[in-house]
């Protein structure tokens, strides 16, 4: 067992940092639980176990999609902030502004959906928001888009502040990415992985968010000046560049928790390497050009872009994923790992990420996509890596900060397996239904699909029970700190 510290002193939160951190964590947990209950509502409706009017189903689906995507982004930005602030000087006011803008945006989204009746899905794909057949008003669609814009501005501020802070320490973004060591030279082993990952995300996701902002403004103009027609294919390209990038950024921010925390629990160093730098540099390019895999049914797309989307789908996630999972496994193998909630969650996240991208790679193949496109195979894939991959990364940080050091309490012994089991039942129900060609985004299912829906509902209910236990544990832990956990020491 090593002497490596679980709670290095440079990680302590100042008083103000702790206030902002607690606000983020408490809000994120609350929204997750609420959105999960909306998810369960959809599953119960598809199961015919609960009567949900059709228009309500699509509102719930819209709120769940937008709410979850935004919240997982916000939650993983906490991971990035928490570790990056050890190496560069981030502006707390900007991180707080991101929070405020997010809450304002979330209120706008929820109002657009539950008061305005907007139900055009989180992807707000043109021209659906403006052709509602009077189910919702153009103002509801506009409010929904305004909500996204607010959230986007917050993220943009956060990334700009991060890039600015990184440049002040490392000179430029290339050096922060370690590009100077790609072709040789002695790598500075103390160069933090958190800085490499944060730089990559700050660059790529600000491009993604900007693409989103551009397309949102275009759509907003179109809502109020319908004579300004939009090129639907261009709009779809920008929308999916944004959508793909934003959700992938949550993995790339969340994985910083693995880099920073895993070696502390295994007691082994987990140093930076040339393959690591190569994988992050190549993913930086690929994550931005892979999005055409969402447009494979769009025959009007230039064919080369679809081919690129297919080929890059095979490669885009792989480098970072391979170095991370391989690195994590070799780091933990025979290390005498201390199994606590954070370390168990981190290992779960490696499994969930690994297993969750396999169905995506399969679906990224044009010939398979012809059959699987818009089946529940797709929610099967992304719930897999989000619920069992990214969410555990985020939860790992939360459990770490509340100083959960006692070896597995009874609630962990129950909560953790329940989360994993419920999650697996839930995602395999989607994958199996997708395999049977059950379409996604359908409120009403054929009788032969109902067993999958019902299995999914049961899995979801189990997972939500575990999530409630986690949320209560974490909130109680936050209230007890400081004093209880080292990083909670008030230093200023
Ligand atoms: C207990 C947890 C959850 C349950 C029960 C649940 C349930 C569902 C259901 C039933 C759907 C619609 C599937 C269909 O098209 O037929 C859905 C869609 C979706 N979920 Fe979840 N979900 C959960 C967690 C999450 C999480 C953690 C995230 C992201 C962080 C997420 C993101 C999404 C997204 C983006 C959609 C797509 C919405 C659309 O098609 O427009 N979900 N979920
Ligand atoms: Cu994608």
TrEMBL record:
A single GO BP: aerobic respiration
SUPFAM superfamilies to which the protein is assigned, alphabetical: Cytochrome c oxidase subunit I-like
Domain Cytochrome oxidase subunit I profile: from-to ranges: 1-492
GO terms, molecular function: cytochrome-c oxidase activity; heme binding
A single Gene Ontology CC term: membrane
InterPro entries noted in UniProt: Cyt_c_oxase-like_su1_dom (IPR023616), Cyt_c_oxase-like_su1_sf (IPR036927), Cyt_C_Oxase_1 (IPR000883)
Gene3D superfamilies membership: Cytochrome c oxidase-like, subunit I domain
Keywords for this protein: Electron transport, Membrane, Respiratory chain, Transmembrane, Transmembrane helix, Transport
Transmembrane spans: 21-45, 65-84, 96-119, 139-160, 199-225, 237-259, 271-291, 311-333, 345-362, 382-402, 414-435, 455-479
Pfam families according to UniProt: COX1 (PF00115)
PANTHER family assigned to the protein according to its UniProt record, in alphabetical order: CYTOCHROME C OXIDASE SUBUNIT 1
Protein's recorded name: Cytochrome C oxidase subunit I
Organism per entry: Rhodoferax sediminis
């Amino acid at each position: 067992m090593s002497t490596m510290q679980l709670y290095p002193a440079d990680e302590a939160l100042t008083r103000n940092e702790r206030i902002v951190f607690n606000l983020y964590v408490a809000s994120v947990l609350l929204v997750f639980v609420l959105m999960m209950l909306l998810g369960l509502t959809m599953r119960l409706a598809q199961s015919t176990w609960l009567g949900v009017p059709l228009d309500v189903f699509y509102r719930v689906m819209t709120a769940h999609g937008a709410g979850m995507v935004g919240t997982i982004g916000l939650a993983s930005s906490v991971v990035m902030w928490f570790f990056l602030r050890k190496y560069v000087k981030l502006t707390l006011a900007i991180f707080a502004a991101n929070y405020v803008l997010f809450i304002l945006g979330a209120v706008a989204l929820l109002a657009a959906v539950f008061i305005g009746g907007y139900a055009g899905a989180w992807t707000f794909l043109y021209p659906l928001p403006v052709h509602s057949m009077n189910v919702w008003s153009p103002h509801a669609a506009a409010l929904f888009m305004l909500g996204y814009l607010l959230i986007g501005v917050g993220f943009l501020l956060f990334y700009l502040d991060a890039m600015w802070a990184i440049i002040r320490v490392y000179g430029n973004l290339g050096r922060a990415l370690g590009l100077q060591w790609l072709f040789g030279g002695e790598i500075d082993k103390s160069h933090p992985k958190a800085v490499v990952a944060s730089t990559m995300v700050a660059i790529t996701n600000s491009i993604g968010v900007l693409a989103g902002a551009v397309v949102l403004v275009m759509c907003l103009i179109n809502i109020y000046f319908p004579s300004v027609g939009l090129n639907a294919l261009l709009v779809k390209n920008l929308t999916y560049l944004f959508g793909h990038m934003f959700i992938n950024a949550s993995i790339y921010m969340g994985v910083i928790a693995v880099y920073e925390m895993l070696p502390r629990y295994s007691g082994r160093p987990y140093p930076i390497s040339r393959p690591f730098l190569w994988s992050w540099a190549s993913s930086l390019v690929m994550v931005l050009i892979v999005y055409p895999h969402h447009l494979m049914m769009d025959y009007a797309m230039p064919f080369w872009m679809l081919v690129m989307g297919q080929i890059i789908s095979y490669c885009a996630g792989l480098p970072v994923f391979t170095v991370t999972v391989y690195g994590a496994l070799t780091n933990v193998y025979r290390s005498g790992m201390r199994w606590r909630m954070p370390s168990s969650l981190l290992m779960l996240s490696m499994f969930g990420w690994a297993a969750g991208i396999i169905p995506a790679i399969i679906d990224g193949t044009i010939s398979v996509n012809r059959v699987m496109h818009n089946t529940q195979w797709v929610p099967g894939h992304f719930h897999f890596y989000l619920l069992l991959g990214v969410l555990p990364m985020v939860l790992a940080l939360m459990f770490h900060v509340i100083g959960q050091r006692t070896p597995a309490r009874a609630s962990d012994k129950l909560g953790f397996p329940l989360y994993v089991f419920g999650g697996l039942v839930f995602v395999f129900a989607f994958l199996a239904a997708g395999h049977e060609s059950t379409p996604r985004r359908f409120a009403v299912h054929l009788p032969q699909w109902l067993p999958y829906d019902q299995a999914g509902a049961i899995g979801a209910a189990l997972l939500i029970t575990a999530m409630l236990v986690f949320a209560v544990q974490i909130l109680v832990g936050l209230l007890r700190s400081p004093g209880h956990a080292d990083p909670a020491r008030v230093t200023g």
